[in-house]
Amino acid sequence: MDDIFNQNRIAWNMKVKEKNEWTIPVSQSEVLSAKKGEFHIYLTPSKPVPKHWFPPMKGCDILCLAVGGGQQGPILAAAGGNVTVFDISSGQLEQDRMAAERDGLNINTIEGNMADLSHFPDASFDLIVNPISNCFSPNLIPIWQETYRVLRKSGYMMVGFVNPISYVFDEEKYQKGEFVVRHQLPYSDITSISEEERVQLFGVDDPIEFSHTFESQIGGQLDAGFQMIGFFEDGWKKEKINKYLPSFFATLLVKP
């Protein structure tokens, strides 16, 4: 577990240096619009979160979970939230700090593993925002248990995640547009392919990924005590499978 944590931390720090699209902070104009109450954020690559999913922003205590990079955090802070960004990558957190300093925002940043929120007391937040990131964690149960614990009663959690079917295909052929079923689910970069193949396909510095079943995603959220009150599907132009089915999903949860 520590090896996975360290590999993914190093990988995302490297992606910041490479200016990966998920590490580029939002613009000053977007922050200015958010200060006027006109804002949107993403849990998945293409479709913005519906407006009616958000609670009142002013004074809302928000945890941006595993979502550094200066994208969601600054927008939510500009909209009036008290934002804490919790991420595995110091480089990603630096992007949030940079945006906060640039735009006069108050954002708290903490480095850590999304499956361990022991830094926070029970019932610390009104809203948790968790865009696609749990594909980098081998076990979802502690994530759902910890987020439920730190969320206040009647608080909301927004989660984006990958359609597990995306992981069944042979990656090399998939990139050529060929859908060849190869992997049994749940998939793991550690056990489903060799280290040599992983490096060949993705590079030595790429984060380690894991697929998760719908049972561990949606079922895990419900088993932790959440109630699901919202859901949407999304695609992405970079995913060839989107010609046939959505590659991402998002849920809106409430702690009763």
**Unreliable stretches, pLDDT < 50, 5 or more residues?**
none
SS field, number of helical segments = 8
Give the % helix.
25-40%
Q: What's the architecture, going by CATH?
A: 3-Layer(aba) Sandwich
Report the CATH C-level class: Alpha Beta
Tell me about the largest β-sheet: 7 strands, mixed
CATH topology grouping? Rossmann fold
Count of structural domains: 1
CATH homologous superfamily identity: Vaccinia Virus protein VP39
Q: Total number of β-strand segments?
A: 7
Report the order of strands and helices. Answer: HHEHEHEEHEHHHEE
Q: Can you tell me the overall shape?
A: globular
> Rg to the nearest angstrom?
18 Å
Distance between the termini: 32 Å
**Sequence of strands across the biggest β-sheet:** 3-2-1-4-5-7-6
Mean pLDDT: 97
Helix-and-strand structural type: alpha/beta
Tell me what portion of residues adopts beta-strand conformation: 15-25%
Descriptive labels:
Rossmann fold, alpha/beta, 7 strands, 256 residues
Describe the protein's architecture and organization.
By secondary structure, the protein is an alpha/beta fold. The protein has one domain (2-166, 211-254): Vaccinia Virus protein VP39 (Rossmann fold, 3-Layer(aba) Sandwich). Helix content is 30%, strand content 19%. Helix 2 (28-35) runs parallel beside helix 3 (72-78).
